[in-house]
From TrEMBL:
PANTHER family: GOLGI SNARE BET1-RELATED (PTHR12791). This is Bet1 At4g14600. It is found in: Endoplasmic reticulum membrane; Golgi apparatus membrane. GO terms for biological process: protein transport. InterPro entries: T_SNARE_dom.
Length: 93
């Protein structure tokens, strides 16, 4: 009976050790993911600031240059779309 009890205690200690190892792995993974998310958040904040700054510059440029500049950009985009459309039609033949 004493041997059975010792084996039971040994088995429980082994399981506790395994659970501790799993817990440590989960903790290190959680720390890694948290650091990654913090880094991603900082990158997004920087990107938002850059986009906001560029939008401000673009708005100032549009005001300075007038809407004629915007019309040129739109026409260029339409021309590019039309060329790609024609190219896809020709290449299918």
């Amino acid at each position: 009976m004493h041997v059975d009890f010792d084996e039971e205690v040994f088995g429980l200690r082994k399981q506790v050790r395994q659970l501790r190892n799993v817990t440590q792995e989960i903790e290190s993974e959680a720390k890694y993911k948290n650091d990654f998310l913090n880094q991603l958040q900082m990158t997004l904040i920087d990107a938002q600031a850059g986009v906001k700054n560029n939008m401000r510059r673009l708005n100032k440029s549009i005001i300075r240059e007038g809407s004629n500049h915007v019309m040129h950009v739109v026409l260029f985009a339409l021309l590019c779309f039309f060329v790609v459309y024609l190219w896809s039609k020709i290449s299918r033949r």
